[in-house]
Design a protein that fits this description.
By secondary structure, the protein is α/β, with parallel strands linked by helices. It has 12 helices and 10 strands. The chain is elongated and about 65 Å long. One of its GO terms (cellular component) is cytoplasm.
């Protein structure tokens, strides 16, 4: 068992170009990861093998990427060094049971994106010695702008952690966190794209109200959101300082900030996260 020190992670391990990556479950999130890998992560579509119970969806999605549609979950494990479990959380046990001996074979790395399935929970159903890591990705990974929250506790070797980072760092910010905060952080990063999209929609509606064509409004607002986030990551500035930098004394921006404060903007955002966490 390994507790990962993020500062000590070095991207050694197997070169991404030499890997075959498998997906068991190929829904929207799995397709997003695969798309990011192929279009932005230096992975060839031929390196990807996927299985899903919905054969029509599987065939269409793999065809677009040049990936292979497998006949079964067992076939995915047989052909791949990295296996990504991407089925719904409520069917993890039934999916894993028939293939758990294969998942435990030397040279296989299991990465799970199933919500709520952390290291300790997997240890109750996987065969002893299975090398596995639980992560929470988000949808922007499809365009190489994702966030992946990874559980610090795992039993991957240093080389296997290196393989994982080689695959995911080109398409996402990878953050290792303790188990206790894995899904809290996952809520912020994986659910919040919905909230960000609502903000983009609302701000675009305001732009349309004031005469800007809708297509232009979407482009302008989305680029502004992306740029603001990139500026914060690049500079490390706290968001309050970034807000203050735009708010001139007696200016228009601070009047808009006041209105957002009066309407409870920040409290509403925090309440949305509380609702997801069941608080």
């Amino acid at each position: 068992m390994t507790v990962i020190n993020p500062s000590a992670v070095v991207a050694d391990g197997t070169a991404a170009s030499n890997l075959t990556i498998g997906f068991i479950g190929f829904g929207a999130m799995a397709q997003g990861i695969a798309t990011g890998m192929v279009r932005h992560g230096g992975i060839d579509g031929a390196q990807i093998v996927a299985y899903d119970i919905n054969r029509q969806t599987l065939d269409a999605a793999t065809s677009v990427l040049g990936a292979t549609a497998a006949a079964s979950a067992a076939d995915v494990v047989d052909e791949c060094e990295v296996v990504i479990l991407a089925v719904k959380p409520n069917v993890i046990e039934s999916v894993v049971e028939p293939i758990k001996a294969k998942l435990a074979e030397p040279g296989t790395v299991v990465i799970s994106i199933a919500w709520g399935w952390d290291f300790a929970k997997y240890e109750t159903i996987l065969a002893p010695g299975t090398h596995h890591l639980s992560i929470v990705p988000n949808t922007p990974i499809a365009v190489g702008k994702g966030v992946v929250v990874a559980e610090r506790l795992s039993n991957l070797t240093p080389d296997e952690i290196g393989t994982f980072t080689r695959l995911f760092e080109p398409i996402s910010l990878v953050e290792f966190l303790d188990t206790a905060t894995l899904y809290q952080a996952g809520t912020v990063t994986s659910c919040a794209p919905a909230y960000a999209a609502m903000f983009i929609e609302a701000l675009s509606d305001a732009a349309v109200k004031h005469g800007i064509p809708r297509a232009a409004a979407y482009r302008l607002v989305s680029a502004m959101v992306e740029g603001t986030g990139a500026l914060q990551v690049a500079t490390g500035q706290i968001p309050a300082a970034m807000k203050d930098a735009v708010c001139s004394p007696g200016g228009a921006t601070i009047r808009g900030v006041q209105r957002l404060e009066e309407r409870g903007f920040r409290g509403d955002v925090m309440s949305a996260v509380d609702a997801v966490m069941g608080d």
